[in-house]
Specification:
This protein is mostly helical and 119 residues long. 70% of the residues lie in helices and 12% in strands. It has seven helices and three strands. A three-stranded antiparallel beta sheet has the order 1-3-2. The radius of gyration is 22 Å and the shape is elongated.
């Protein structure tokens, strides 16, 4: 399982990056096409420097990559980082579904059988 193979720091960095609405929006925007940091900044009511910081958080989490072209920094989605996030969420979902199924099975068991086992 990927959950067991990654460090807590890596998983924390990934989910902390995705915990912010602006960063999720940046990932969404650059998933369709590369955009410069200055183009991204035009979408938000914040400073250019603040957008740069959001992009840096996403880059540290491997959700986006930056490429310098001339004077511009182009930001693009990193499919591998996004796939890792999806895989982690899928694994967490599977864990919780298994737990819910076990609880359901316990609740559906005949309580009389438990009384016999305890005596």
């Amino acid at each position: 399982m990927v959950v067991d193979q990654l460090s807590e720091e890596t998983v924390d960095r990934l989910f902390q990056a995705l915990s912010d609405a602006t960063r999720r929006d940046i990932v969404r925007r650059v998933s369709g096409a590369s955009l410069s940091v200055s183009s991204l900044a035009a979408f938000y009511a914040m400073s250019f420097a603040a957008v740069q910081k959001h992009v840096a958080v996403l880059e540290r989490a491997s959700l986006v990559t930056k490429e310098k072209r001339g004077r511009e920094q182009l930001v693009q989605a990193n499919p591998d980082g996004l796939a890792l996030a999806q895989q982690l969420l899928d694994e967490y979902e599977a864990i919780w579904r298994q737990r819910a199924a076990r609880i359901t099975n316990i609740l559906m068991e005949d309580p009389k059988s438990h009384a016999k086992e305890m005596s």
